[in-house]
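RECORD TYPE: inverse folding
INPUT: structure tokens
STRUCTURE:
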């Protein structure tokens, strides 16, 4: 049975939607939403130390990245209040450190000025199919109420590391008018919180990782009708493993979810112990220069 570690994310009271019955919003006016975002500005992310040239780049094979705006209290259905995820997209020809995300929100769900949270789920995309992330929908209404990522399908390649990146963005909401007088919502990023960690490992000749550090395999954000808030979940699969390093590279970079007790990685070479695994951290051995020259974590032989 999966163990679920729960973190409650309280909905901001000053950001809300109108509470109306479920309605067909296909014919409803849509309000444009825009957010310009850099993962590297003002050194707000330590992950910039890991990736080439010290920068996290937006980008995947499908040429499209996504943010999900977690809007609380949008609709009342069967006596319960629902929140909704509003999708923003950014398209690109080549990977970039700065992206402009755009989308639309129905007029009846127009945000008030204040603060809203958005989630970034890196997408392992191939032939327009996202392999590691899926949307979650409310059964009664079909409203998009959450997102789920699985980390066990990652391969450990440097170039794919961003596809397993998780982040929460806090943004201020401003309602503006363009030169024609049309209303649009401008989001300004205030804070980026990385929700996963990265470890650098010597995996030459190793194809399988196990141990308690890989047990948290799923990260989910979902609206909870009882608490009337979006909540974050880390779902654990006991005795699980990651199949990695299919290219048999000397060094691999693995994305892991937070875990705080009895944390270790294991391979045929031994174990690596952690006091804990915290979000937004980079775990390496000795730093001797840039990240390419940094030593990996050292395996500890555990005997027969």
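DESIGNED SEQUENCE:
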């Amino acid at each position: 049975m999966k163990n679920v570690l729960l973190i409650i994310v309280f909905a901001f009271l000053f950001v809300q939607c109108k509470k109306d019955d479920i309605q067909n919003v296909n014919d409803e006016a849509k309000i444009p939403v825009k957010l310009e975002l850099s993962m590297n500005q003002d050194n707000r992310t330590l992950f910039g130390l890991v990736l080439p040239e010290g920068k996290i780049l937006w980008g995947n094979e499908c040429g499209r990245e996504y943010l999900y705006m977690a809007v609380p209290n949008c609709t009342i259905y069967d006596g319960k209040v629902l929140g909704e995820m509003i999708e923003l997209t950014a398209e690109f020809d080549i990977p970039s450190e700065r992206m402009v995300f755009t989308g639309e929100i129905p007029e009846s769900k127009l945000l008030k000025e204040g603060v809203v949270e958005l989630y970034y789920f890196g997408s392992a995309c191939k032939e327009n199919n996202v392999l590691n992330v899926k949307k979650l929908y409310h059964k009664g209404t079909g409203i998009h109420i959450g997102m789920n990522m699985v980390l066990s399908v990652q391969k450990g390649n440097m170039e794919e590391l961003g596809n397993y990146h998780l982040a929460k963005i806090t943004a201020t909401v401003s309602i503006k008018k363009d030169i024609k007088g049309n209303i649009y919502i401008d989001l300004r990023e205030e804070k980026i919180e990385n929700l996963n960690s990265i470890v650098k490992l010597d995996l030459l000749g190793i194809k399988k990782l196990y141990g308690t550090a890989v047990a948290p395999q799923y990260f989910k954000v979902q609206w909870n009708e009882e608490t009337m808030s979006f909540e974050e979940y880390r779902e654990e699969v006991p005795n699980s493993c990651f199949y990695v390093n299919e290219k048999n590279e000397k060094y691999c970079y693995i994305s892991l979810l937070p875990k705080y007790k009895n944390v270790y990685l294991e391979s045929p070479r031994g174990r690596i112990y952690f006091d804990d695994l915290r979000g937004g951290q980079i775990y390496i051995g000795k730093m001797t220069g840039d990240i390419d020259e940094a030593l990996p974590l050292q395996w500890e032989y555990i005997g027969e």
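NOTES: The two ends are 29 Å apart (CA to CA).
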